[in-house]
Amino acid sequence: MEERKELLKKLTLAFGPPGFEEEPRKIMFDYLKDYGEITYDKLGSIIVKKEGNSKTPKVMIAGHLDEIGFLVKSITKEGMLKIVPAGGWWEHTMLAQRVKIRTSKGDIIGVVGAKPPHELEAEERQKVVKMDTLHVDIGAYKDFDVKDKLGVRVGDPVVPDTDFVELNEKVYLSKAFDNRVGCAVVVEVIKELAKSNHPNTVFGVGTVQEELGLRGAGTSAEVIRPDVAFAIDVSLANDMSSGGFEKDERLGNGPAIIFMDRTMVANWRLRDFAIEIANDIKIPYHVTYVSGGYDTGRIHLLREGVPSLNIGIPSRYIHSHSSMIHRDDFDNAIKLIVEIICKLDENRVRTFLNM
Ligand code: ZN
Q1: How confident is the model at residue 311 (pLDDT cuts 50, 70, 90)?
Q2: What is the mean pLDDT of residues 272-297?
Q3: Ligand 1 centre distance from Cα of residue 145 (Å)
Q4: 3-state class of 88 per DSSP?
Q5: What's 132's DSSP letter?
């Protein structure tokens, strides 16, 4: 399999809800260990330090390692699992979906049980189900003890169970593009920088627990103390309904330069600098607002503040079992970030400070 596609496949299929990011972290480690010194914060975020021609400025690029998932909340007498979400889920998308549970005896598959439509009251059919009414069925029957036989415990982590599918030569379908695509961009940017001169030191980071409130972003930034920071994450592609192909936020329209989200207004000088470079290298891109939050929401508030910007890879159907990205957007995001970093010297970073 072609290298970048394989990286995306490995990372999206890795098991890693918030607090259980061992697998994606190990994948990042394996890809990055030869490119610089690897350290960690004490929550488990991974940091690779890639030195360029200068120790400063310190540039942080972060993708979050965690994916949305669940933890087992309780086990009923019938051996069904009740779950609590770790990250934002719309219950509607969960019915009849397969999940993977990591138990003390290994990984098992379960399904979020759904009644057949004719068993539902008319009123019930109109409603969106509530998380606490859902159960994960792992095949229990009378006298089959799931705790004993399968090793399942309260607190065990749960993620969607899906495949990686190449829908066509440009579009990939998998779970967790939010945000393993960001982790993959960080890996590829660090690899590309090994072939170029950059007037700074770059810290490529896989952060933990973003989906629960940007937690690893704060702790890893504390380790690095960056002078300038980027979060690389998904943005939204909204091109699946009427008029979609007229929208800027569509698959194949290049990386998103995000001027504001729920947790930060981008440093506008840094934003304009990124736009200038995107124009120079002639890649498609778009400037947009996103209603979610990003790791920079925490990083830009560190100490006396850090000029920050988010770069998004447009994705359809995030926070569900099956999300979608366009390969060219991934490649162009890498290209853009590498070009930006190659021009980020001390003087440039000084111009971003609002004085
Ligand atoms: Zn994300």
Answers
A1: very high
A2: 97
A3: 37
A4: coil
A5: G
Cβ contact 65:28 at 8 Å: yes
Q: β-strands 286-289, 256-261: how paired?
A: parallel
For residues 278-303, b (16+ Cβ closer than 10 Å) or e, as one string?
beeeebebbebebebbbbbbbbbebe
Residue 355 has pLDDT above 80, yes or no: no
- CB atoms < 10 A from the CB of 127, how many? 12
Dihedral class, residue 100 (left if φ above 0, else alpha if ψ from -120 to 50, else beta):
beta
Q: What is the CB neighbour count within 10 angstroms for residue 55?
A: 9
Rounded Cα distance, 128 and 93, in Å? 10
Ligand 1 centroid distance, CA of 121 (Å): 37
Task: Find the 12 Cα to ligand 1 centroid distance in Å.
Answer: 13
- Average pLDDT of the segment spanning 256-285: 98
Per-residue pLDDT tens over the stretch 30-74 = 999 999 999 999 999 999 999 999 999 999 999 999 999 999 999
pTM score above 0.85 = yes
Q: What percent of the chain has pLDDT over 70?
A: 99
φ, ψ of residue 109 in degrees (nearest 5): -105, 145
84 and 134 in contact (C-beta within 8 Å)? no
Q: Would you name the residues annotated as active-site residues?
A: 210
How far away, in angstroms, is 67 Cα from ligand 1 center? 8
Task: Answer positive or negative: Cα dihedral of 104, 105, 106, 108.
Answer: negative
